[in-house]
Design brief:
Elements: H1 9-19, E1 27-31, H2 32-45, E2 51-54, H3 61-70, E3 74-79, H4 82-90, E4 96-98, H5 105-117, E5 124-127, H6 130-139, E6 144-149, E7 154-156, E8 161-163, H7 173-184, E9 189-196, H8 199-202, H9 212-241, E10 248-251, H10 257-260, E11 268-271, H11 273-276, E12 293-304, E13 307-311, E14 328-331, E15 336-337, E16 347-351, E17 363-367, E18 380-385, E19 388-394
Parallel strand pairs: 1-18, 2-3, 2-11, 3-4, 5-6, 6-9, 9-10, 10-11
Antiparallel strand pairs: 1-12, 7-8, 12-13, 12-17, 13-16, 14-17, 15-16, 18-19
Helix pairs in contact: 7-9
Length: 404
């Protein structure tokens, strides 16, 4: 388990216990010392490229604002729905790039009005097909700035085997240029950005415990995929620039910042989960993050001398269902989930050496598998520095915003 630099697990738990002595669980929190350490590490890995901050991985407006204000190279947000994007724009956030196509007609009408008032500064929306262009034009008469989504998947056997997230149908540079030419024929649409996200590299670890053969296969695939993608992405940018004046070429994620840093065709990287450092990123060989976002559950009962039961805890991460989607008991160390119950809706049994010492009312600190999804369970985050709560801020949920 990765620890905050300079602190062993016991010291870290003592610090949290002191900070939260008067606070009843359950609650969620962010260790600012760890988060800012992760931030500096991500900037170093990204080389000289700016990092666009992924809002879905944070889902906390005040923290997003703090990060953007803290370093010049944290520049802009990558958003996940158009209503979220418009809400953030109304609160003064600028340089907003929506990472996923939208079918929200009311939001598109509002976006058209916003773009008419600010043609060069309004949010950018994602497209990957003529169908998207038709939908946008039918929903709004105003001008709309667009980003083209290039598939970053790794194809083998002539495309019969496709590795990577199922996103855009645009795989070849020629397909990207063809859609750019179609956009150029439509006066109400303007192509200003190109994005490609290699989720099979950025979001897939190559050092999973007990998976030696899988790790070797993942590493082999990722090395070949990034080599192929680097050439294909550069060619796509070259061809699209013949048709459109691209302001932004975006790529990458927390897991491969150091690779995107080496691509001259890419103007910026994206990262979000690395600020919170969920357990997903414990299985990467190229970097080590410090756990920053966590939640605490109270011990509410003791069914036997070897087991304690915590209240709640069933905060499963999205993705293919499995044990690796469950939160992980983190502190005190030596705690394990019951294999028959896992993390539950209203109770989570825990056993191990530490369980014998816990009393009713004690806190157990957990880490989530993913990052921002934790904020859909809690309406506030307590911000900790050292052994002190320095602020308490609302999550999206705490502001009455549940976009997905």
């Amino acid at each position: 388990m990765h620890e905050v630099v300079g602190l062993d697990a016991r010291s870290r738990q003592l610090r949290y216990d002191e900070a939260f002595a008067e606070l009843d669980a359950p609650f969620a929190f962010v260790d600012l010392d760890a988060m800012w350490g992760n931030a500096e590490q991500m900037l170093a890995r990204a080389g000289d490229k700016p990092i666009r901050v992924a809002s879905k991985s944070l889902r906390c407006r005040p923290l997003q604002r703090q990060i953007l204000d803290a370093r010049e190279r944290f520049n802009g947000l990558m958003t996940f729905t158009l209503p979220e994007t418009l809400w953030l724009a109304g609160l003064g956030f600028t340089n907003l790039l929506l990472a996923y196509p939208t079918t929200d007609r009311a939001a598109l009408r509002e976006l058209g009005e916003l773009t008419a008032a600010d043609p060069d500064g309004a949010p950018i929306v994602m497209v990957d097909s003529v169908e998207h262009l038709d939908f946008i034009e039918a929903a709004t008469t105003g001008p709309v700035r667009l980003c083209l989504d290039l598939d970053a998947g790794y194809w083998r056997a002539g495309g019969r085997v496709k590795i990577g997230p199922k996103r855009s149908p645009l795989h070849t540079p020629e397909q990207a240029r063809a859609l750019a030419e179609e956009i150029a024929r439509r006066p109400a649409l303007r192509l200003v950005a190109l994005m490609s996200y290699e989720g099979h590299i950025a979001g897939f670890g190559d050092k999973v415990a007990g998976k030696r053969v899988q790790n070797a296969a993942v590493g082999w695939m990722q090395r070949r995929s990034i080599a192929e993608l680097r050439e294909r992405r550069a060619r796509a940018v070259e061809l699209v620039r013949l048709v459109a004046d691209l302001e932004i070429v975006n790529a990458g994620g927390t897991g491969d910042l150091q690779l995107v840093a080496q691509e001259p065709a890419v103007t910026e990287a994206t990262a979000g989960s690395g600020f919170y450092a969920p357990t997903l990123f414990d299985s990467y060989s190229s970097f080590t993050l410090q756990p920053a976002a966590m939640f605490a559950l109270p011990v509410s009962r003791r069914p036997d001398a070897e087991t304690v039961t915590a209240l709640g805890g069933g905060y499963l991460a999205s993705g293919v269902g499995g044990k690796d989607r469950m939160p992980t008991p983190y502190l005190p160390t030596g705690m394990r989930l019951d294999p028959m119950e896992g993390t539950g809706e209203v109770q989570t049994p825990l056993y191990g050496d530490a369980a014998r010492r816990l009393k009713v009312g004690d806190k157990v600190y957990f880490r989530h598998t993913k990052a921002g999804e934790l904020c859909e369970r809690f309406d506030r985050l307590h911000l900790v520095r050292g052994a002190q709560i320095v602020d308490t801020v609302p999550t999206y949920r705490g502001e009455g915003r549940t976009f997905l």
